[in-house]
From TrEMBL:
<dbReference type="Pfam" id="PF02065">
    <property type="entry name" value="Melibiase"/>
</dbReference>
<dbReference type="InterPro" id="IPR017853">
    <property type="entry name" value="GH"/>
</dbReference>
<dbReference type="InterPro" id="IPR002252">
    <property type="entry name" value="Glyco_hydro_36"/>
</dbReference>
<dbReference type="InterPro" id="IPR050985">
    <property type="entry name" value="Alpha-glycosidase_related"/>
</dbReference>
<dbReference type="InterPro" id="IPR013785">
    <property type="entry name" value="Aldolase_TIM"/>
</dbReference>
<protein>
    <submittedName>
        <fullName>Alpha-galactosidase</fullName>
    </submittedName>
</protein>
<dbReference type="GO" id="GO:0016052">
    <property type="term" value="P:carbohydrate catabolic process"/>
</dbReference>
<dbReference type="GO" id="GO:0004557">
    <property type="term" value="F:alpha-galactosidase activity"/>
</dbReference>
Length: 569
């Protein structure tokens, strides 16, 4: 039978990593080093492409950092692209029960890399193809959990990066955001009201989103660019910020970094130094390869911290610097050829300036600009917008956690309908349990039972922060969107149950089970005895008992949105 050969590389060099053979195009020589059991580094500075095949035996999922259903794609699927302003260079072929089959990561590239992978129908193999300049590949063929293999790539990136600014503790504490609750209809008075209520519920930071810079309420970005507060709604922004900070809240301000709107004075000033114009946004994308563009943006953003007293910035739309189809040629007056290099210089110089005023400055980025090359310039990374989709929020935050390295992972802003039952409010929060929750509802309109659910679950986030955010993360069944997720450290195991799946009880320490499934029957497997305490979605104690675990299944009823705690005698 004639077999189709995908993505022919031409003349290649063949190297081996264990039982796997890789074809490297353009590589005069390559070095293969085994760094641990089942893990190899392939250094091929002259390579422009790499390709290898893995038999699809007991394969169940294909994990990528861009989210989605994690299905196993056919070979003719579109390539994944990673660059400084979009994506992360790592993928994983996942086997039965979440075991790693083949996880591949690339050292943070200076230029764009692309990955094409999929099932070759004629042979039942999964074909991996990488394209880039000077490939440095980390290949994990061990049979440990895929989540550990992906996290191993992130740890490698961190080693390669060297010293990074420490992530402030505050970056890991609950946040209130104005976007879904107010959209552009923000004012000093309304922000201060929400900040006070959010602080009482357990939030430590408020992020004021779009609308502070304009009195226009038609959405769009036509009035972005000068980044001065609207005097109609923020007549004394420094005094306003001081009042919010007196509540004990940190204050971050939103900036759509690349955009300059058509109704803004900066639009005429920088005409001719745009990457492109976006009709649907009524704004142009500035070209960061021009030093005067970078200096202007740095001055505009820095005043929020230096002059108005902010604690940090929410930097939005960094991915929009990347031009579909390729970056335009640099114009006269640019000082670098690549847009990504211009972005890197912009963020580096902005970070250096902000830290002169606030060494613990808080900076939020967002999917899809999740590259490890941006770690020096952000300490918070948020899941992309998925309003009212708790499952998507769960999947995206878990995906981010596996690759975020030292950066605190935040949920997308959590939103619910005013008539939402308190149990469902708790379910929204449990779906973000392994990230930093961002709340975005009108707190003045919440019923007492809804407020009780917020207060209780934000208390759980805070009380168990170390286990939830710094413990070992063990998500199960990526092909099903992680219906059960576990985090553990030496003393505590925390399990979030999103479907009626059984829970293993550890032999020692404390077990906490958050039940986001409608099925109240939590099935436990373990032995021995433990003190059991069940709380409802608002934190009220439903029952306490001594639970005797015998071989086989034990069932404990936990309300939807509720919590089970087991402490060994």
């Amino acid at each position: 039978m004639q077999v189709w050969e995908p993505y022919a590389l031409g003349e290649t060099t063949r190297v081996r990593a264990g039982a796997l053979e890789l074809a490297l195009a353009g590589a005069a020589d390559a070095t293969v080093t085994q760094v641990s059991d089942g893990v190899w580094l392939i250094d091929a500075p002259g390579a422009t492409a790499a390709q290898w095949r893995v038999p699809c035996v007991s394969v169940s999922a294909f994990w990528t950092p861009v989210g989605g259903t994690h299905w196993v794609p056919p070979i003719w699927s579109a390539p994944l692209v990673s660059r400084l302003t979009a994506g992360s260079p790592v993928v994983s072929l996942v086997g039965t029960a979440g075991a790693n089959v083949c996880t591949v990561g690339l050292a943070e590239p200076l230029a764009q890399v692309s990955f094409t992978g999929g099932v070759m129908e004629e042979t039942g193999e999964f074909v991996f193809t990488l394209h880039g300049e000077g490939l440095r590949i980390r290949l994990d063929l061990s049979d440990r959990p895929f989540s550990a293999a992906v996290a191993g790539v992130a740890a490698w990136w961190q080693e390669e990066a060297g010293d990074l600014p420490p992530t402030p503790d505050r970056a890991r504490l609950p946040v209130y955001s104005t976007w879904y609750s107010m959209h552009q209809d923000v004012s000093a008075e309304s922000v201060e009201t929400q900040a006070r209520l959010a602080r009482e519920l357990g939030c430590e930071t408020i992020i004021v989103d779009d609308g502070w810079q304009t009195a226009d309420r038609a959405r769009g970005y036509a009035f972005c660019g000068d980044w001065e507060p609207s005097l109609a709604t923020f007549p004394d922004i420094s005094g306003h910020v001081a009042r919010v900070r007196e509540l004990g809240m940190a204050y971050l301000l939103w900036y759509a970094l690349p955009f300059v709107g058509k109704h803004n004075a900066a639009f005429e000033r920088f005409e001719g130094r745009f990457l492109r114009y976006l009709d649907h946004m009524d704004a142009a994308v500035l070209d960061p390869r021009y030093p005067e563009v970078r200096n202007f943006l740095i001055d505009r953003l820095a005043q929020a911290v230096e002059t108005w007293g902010m604690d940090g910035l929410k930097i939005d739309f960094v991915d929009r610097f990347a031009t579909p189809g390729g970056d335009p040629a640099p114009g006269a007056g640019t000082d670098c050829a690549d847009v990504d290099e211009g972005v890197r210089r912009l963020l580096h110089d902005l970070d250096a300036r902000l830290r002169r005023t606030r060494p613990q400055v808080l900076i939020e980025h967002r999917q899809p600009y999740t590259s490890p090359g941006l770690w020096p310039y952000a300490n918070m990374i948020r899941a992309v917008d998925c309003p009212l989709s708790s499952q998507e929020n769960r999947q995206r935050t878990i995906d981010l956690r596996l690759t975020a390295g030292p950066v605190a992972v935040h949920s997308d802003m959590i939103l619910w309908h005013p008539d939402e039952p308190a149990e469902q409010v708790a379910v929204h929060l449990i779906n973000a349990l392994f990230s930093v929750p961002q709340i975005s509802v009108d707190l003045t309109a919440q019923r007492p039972d809804q407020l009780a659910a917020i207060r209780f679950w934000l208390g759980i986030f805070r009380r168990h922060l170390s286990t939830l955010q710094r413990g070992t993360l063990e998500p199960e069944q990526p092909e099903h969107g992680y219906p059960l997720v576990r985090a553990r450290d030496e003393r505590t195991t925390i399990v979030a149950r999103y479907a009626p799946l059984p829970v293993e009880v550890p032999d020692s320490g404390e077990l906490i089970v958050a039940n986001a499934a409608p099925d109240r029957r939590v099935v436990l497997y373990g032995t021995g005895s433990a003190h059991a305490e069940v709380h409802d979605c608002g934190g009220a104690v439903v029952r306490t008992s001594t639970l005797v675990l015998e071989p086989g299944a034990c069932v404990v009823e936990v309300p939807m949105g509720g919590l089970l705690t087991l402490r060994r005698d």
